[in-house]
Amino acid sequence: MKSLKQFFGSHLPLIPFLIFALFPFYFMLVTSFKDDGELYDLNSIPFWIYKGVVLSHYRFLLAETPFLTWISNSLTASVLSTIISVIISILAAYSLARLNFRGAHSFGIAIFITYLVPPALLFLPLSQVVHKLGLSDSIWALILTYPTFLVPFCTWLLLGYFKTVPREIEECAMVDGATRFQTLTKIVLPVATPGIICATLFSFTLSWNEFLYALTFISSTAQKTATVGITGDLIRGDIYYWGSLMAGAVLGSVPIVIAYVFFLDYYVSGLTAGAIK
Q1: With bands split at pLDDT 50, 70 and 90, how would you rate the model's confidence at 2?
Q2: How far apart are CA 29 and CA 36, in angstroms?
Q3: What angle (nearest 5°) sits at the alpha carbon of residue 211, between those of residues 58 and 217?
Q4: pLDDT at 111
Q5: Residue 103 main-chain phi, psi, to 5 deg
Q6: What is the pTM of this model?
Q7: CB-CB contact of 46 with 31 (8 Å)
Q8: Contact in structure between 151 and 85 (CB atoms under 8 Å)
Q9: pLDDT given for residue 271 in this prediction
Q10: Alpha carbon 171 to chain centroid distance?
Q11: Which range among 104-108, 174-178, 264-268 shows the weakest confidence by mean pLDDT?
């Protein structure tokens, strides 16, 4: 009886949310395993597979398109831009949180305002920068431009988290002779690991899913990321390869799912610690 009350009290309200959140993934998965005959049959129910599971869409995606190259490009751009952004954000956030220099509060507000600027407004000036640096149609154009929206976000997130770290432990380390940089690397960063992992996951997710810059700065098929390559090469005019599109969406979601499964606890604790400060 107690377990029944617990189910209706805590688990039952979650069911509508789970249906809403998981339905797109379910629909992607079901569509990717249907054959074309069933997929384009107007009389079939789109939420179930009646004629058996087929892997032809996955075979087409892996054998007939440079999907693995797109995934490799996405990983390269996402990992490098995330590393660069998190390093810059750690230094910026720690300076704003601990070094009480003149104008620190204004800098913090300016970073927050920068974070609010839509990336769609930035790609025009950034396209000039990319062109002058000779990085057009190169994966390095994305590695250079992604930090423009990742650094403000990560800095704001880490700023809130660093403020939750007690100053006393840093002061004790400096009394014992540690420099400010040693205090940061040996005291603050280990304590702030959940916040850093949270910022890293957010940065990686934003980079992985980014579409506008990848579409604007990259044109050759060999340099495209997964988001642009799948939609660009599997939508030809008014012909949509729905099965392969959904197969690409399923496979493209795997790295994000793996990252969140392994670091979910750090992600939640880092996000909430920064949010309540």
Answers
A1: low
A2: 14
A3: 110
A4: 80
A5: 85, 10
A6: 0.84
A7: yes
A8: yes
A9: 60
A10: 35
A11: 264-268
Segment 240-258 shows an average pLDDT of 88
Q: Is the pLDDT of residue 275 over 50?
A: no
Q: Angle CA(230)–CA(197)–CA(181) in degrees, nearest 5?
A: 130
pLDDT tens column, 214-229: 988 888 888 889 989 8
Q: What separation in angstroms does the CA of 114 have from each of 99, 110, 149?
A: 21, 6, 8
The string of DSSP codes covering the chain is -HHHHHIIIIITTHHHHHHHHHHHHHHHHHHHTS-HHHHT-TTS-TTS-SS----HHHHHHHHHS-HHHHHHHHHHHHHHHHHHHHHHHHHHHHHHHH---TTHHHHHHHHHHHHHS-HHHHHHHHHHHHHHTT-TTSHHHHHHHTHHHHHHHHHHHHHHHHTTS-HHHHHHHHHTT--HHHHIIIIIHHHTHHHHHHHHHHHHHHHHH--HHHHHH--SGGG--HHHHHHHHSEETTEE-HHHHHHHHHHHHHHHHHHHHHHHHHHHHHHHHHHH-
Instruction: Say which residue the tokens 């952004």 belong to.
Output: 85
Token pair listed for 42: 């107007």
| Predicted pLDDT of residue 254 | 87
Q: How far is the C-alpha of 120 from the C-alpha of 141, rounded, in Å?
A: 16
Asked if 48 and 26 count as a contact pair (C-beta separation under 8 A), the reply is: no
What angle do the packed helices 147-162 and 104-116 form, to 10 degrees?
130
